[in-house]
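Below sits my pick:
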Amino acid sequence: MPFIGNQPALSFTSFAKQDFSTSATTSYTLDNPVANANELALFINFVRQEPTTAYSASGTTLTLTSATASSDDMYCVYLGQALQTVNPPNASVGLSQLTATGTKDATTFLRGDNTFAEAGGGKILQVVTANETANRSITSTSYVNSSNGLTVDITPSATSSKIFIAVSITKFKAPSGQAIFLTVYRDSSNIGGSSGLALNGGFNESIPASFSIMDSPSSTSSLTYQVYAKTSGGTSEYGDGSGISTITAFEIGA
């Protein structure tokens, strides 16, 4: 039929139900008030009773014609308490409505025991970061602990976790014909090798740079990650007093 305004959303109807603890009595109390017995569908031992003949009801009082026994099963459905909602009522959706055959998303969310699965690996469990603004000079041709500022401590929550390290340097430079190398140490171990950062020969300009490393420490102890540096010769520099260099550690769940 014609209507004014937006088209109504699909609605669902549900009825309130009450279970009774039976005893040798004819009088019971209803959870919801009713006007008369016709607003109730009463069942005793799974047999529907006739309104006004087998029982009467008014307000919250239910009166039976014959007393029940403690072994009887009795419940009622409130015919006058029908509720219409746009959302399906509680317990009205089963697994057949949740599982869409052939749909990747549906089968991903449901486990074999028909409960929702938790998210898989790749979750970021914690993040620790540190920064500094100092300019660092490097003259050593072997990796040295060159900075107290670019250091983070992190304690993995599981041995299966990976630690992703991201380093951002505001500026770095090396003398003409020389190179500067940056890497990351976990405690006393060089986890970046010589694949950190390098500037080689003929450059004496300050430029920004960044690099990252994925580490698998297999530990739940406190770990220290720190930037180390070396030069191929002369005096190299990294960092800048006017900017902020950072090191960030991300714990990635397995």
